[in-house]
Structure formats: C-alpha cells, structure tokens
Design a protein that fits this description.
The protein is built from one helix and 13 strands. A hairpin with a 2-residue loop joins strand 5 and strand 6. By secondary structure, it is of the alpha+beta class. The longest helix has 36 residues. Strands 5, 6, 7, 11, 12 and 13 form a six-stranded antiparallel beta sheet that branches. A five-stranded antiparallel beta sheet has the order 9-8-4-3-10, with no helix packed on it.
Length: 180
C-alpha cells in the first residue's frame, strides 16, 4: 500500500473506496454477531420449552393390570400421573382379550396420583367403571400384565397444562398428537 498525503498534511493509506470505511465494517460485524446471538438464544428457549413440556407429558403412564384371584378375576388399567399437575381430556384405548375395546377410557381431568379404572363385566359391550385411587382400591392385589400382547394399553392421549396434546403409543413412545 502506498501512503498518500492529504490536504491537512496527514499521511493516509490508499484504501479502495468500494470497501467502505472501517467503522462501517465494525458496525456490520456487530449487527451480524447480534443477530446470530439472538437466533441462538431463541433456539435455546424453544429447546428448553420443548424439554419442559415433554418432561411433564412423560410423567403420565398407563398399563393393564389384573387381580390374580381366579374366582373373581378383575381386569383394568392403572393411570399413573406423577407430574404434579393435572391433565385434561385423557383418552386411553385398551387391548383386552386380544381385541381393542370399543369404548376407550375417557376422563375430563386426571389429577396427580395413581388411579385404577376397572373393566366392567356387567355387559357384553365392555365399559369402564369410575376411576378410584389405588391406595383406596386394593392396589396391593393388582398385578401388571407384562408378558402378553393380548392385554396392553394401545394408545394414551391427553392435554397438558400448556395446552399441548400428546400421544403415547403401544410401544410407549411419546409424541405430539396430530391435530384433528
């Protein structure tokens, strides 16, 4: 670079005019850095919100149980909400006796706790009795059915406190439910 003398007598570098001046470049770099930082922060906030939402949703589970007393065999579902918050619009589709039950368990609200919903034997169209807390219902007698695909929760759908709809399938995979 060649030094050139200005009208004031100072020596300046020959900087091509199409490159602009240094303060403009510093300002442009600062703007790009700020935009990148903002986008990174927004992505972190979205990831944190998704993790928090998934954390609450992952604390609801359900499984099929039976009473091992063969004289009065009882079948039902345990709903375990250990999230500390209530869930709304809970729907549980259950497979019993190797067939999906026509009527799912439907609850408007499921508070924290562990509940037993018994399958009613009173009719040919299977229906569900009211949910009862496991400690108040003989929870110590109920055994999970773990070695038969003929008895399992086929699907569990619910809405969390953030108004997000979730679905857990028969493989226990948790995902966002499709909007209807």
């Amino acid at each position: 670079m060649h030094a050139a003398e200005t009208k004031e007598g100072a020596i300046s570098m020959n900087w091509p005019s199409w490159l602009g001046d240094l303060p403009t470049w510093v300002t442009a770099a600062a703007v790009v850095f700020a935009a990148g930082s903002y986008n990174l922060d927004r992505a972190r906030q979205r990831a944190d919100a998704e993790r928090d939402a998934r954390e609450q949703a992952s604390r609801l589970s359900a499984w099929v149980v039976t009473d091992p007393d063969e004289r009065k065999r009882t079948y039902g579902v345990i709903l375990d909400n250990c999230s500390g918050s209530a869930f709304r619009d809970v729907s549980v589709v259950v497979r019993m006796f190797d067939a999906v039950i026509d009527r799912p368990i439907r609850l408007v609200m499921l508070p924290p706790g562990r509940y037993f919903v018994e399958l009613s034997k009173d009719s040919t169209t299977y229906t569900w009795k009211f949910a009862a807390e496991v400690p108040s219902h003989t929870g110590d007698r109920l055994r999970p059915i773990m070695q038969s695909a003929k008895y399992q929760v086929h699907a569990l759908e619910f809405t969390d406190t953030r108004e997000q709809r979730w679905r857990r399938d028969e493989s226990f995979v948790l995902s966002r439910a499709r909007e209807n």
